[in-house]
UniProtKB/TrEMBL annotation:
InterPro entries: ApaG-like, ApaG_domain, ApaG_sf. NCBIfam families: PRK05461.1. Residues 3-128 form the ApaG domain. The gene is apaG. It comes from the Bacteria. This is Co2+/Mg2+ efflux protein ApaG. It comes from Winogradskyella maritima. SUPFAM superfamilies: ApaG-like. It holds the Pfam family DUF525.
């Protein structure tokens, strides 16, 4: 598990290899990740959007931007957390992800970024 705290918001990420399959005549490697967003600050905050930078060992970078996470824009009061799971496909058995969430402080309406720590994606059969 990797963790990082930005502006009182703690991000924890766990990953899991899900398997391989063929798509468009190429083998793909499926990975799942579970993110917990914990509000350790004294303010109520809301997650507005996300930004991901995804890379694999074959140098096929991908950027993903979107509203919320899994169709939600969670509101977190002090001490609350939100956990969700998602996944990604790579064209190699190794890769990684990093990114940030755009959030807002409900009391001040100030927007800020919360960084998602870089984490590795690796198929266990490909690890020496």
């Amino acid at each position: 598990m990797v963790q990082q705290v930005t502006s009182g918001i703690k991000i924890s990420v766990e990953t899991e290899f899900e398997g391989t399959f063929y798509k468009e005549y190429k083998v793909h490697f499926a990975f799942a990740y579970t993110v917990t967003i914990e509000n350790q600050s004294e303010n109520t905050v809301q997650l507005l959007s996300r930004h991901w930078d995804i890379s694999d060992a074959l140098n096929n970078p991908e950027t993903v931007d979107g509203e919320g996470v899994i169709g939600r824009q969670p509101l977190l009061m002090p001490g609350e957390s939100h956990t969700y799971s998602s996944g990604c496909l790579l064209t190699s058995p190794f890769g990684g992800m990093k990114g940030h969430y755009n959030m807002t402080n409900i009391e001040t309406q100030e927007e800020f970024k919360v960084y998602i720590p870089a984490f590795k994606l690796s198929a266990p059969f490909a690890v020496n």
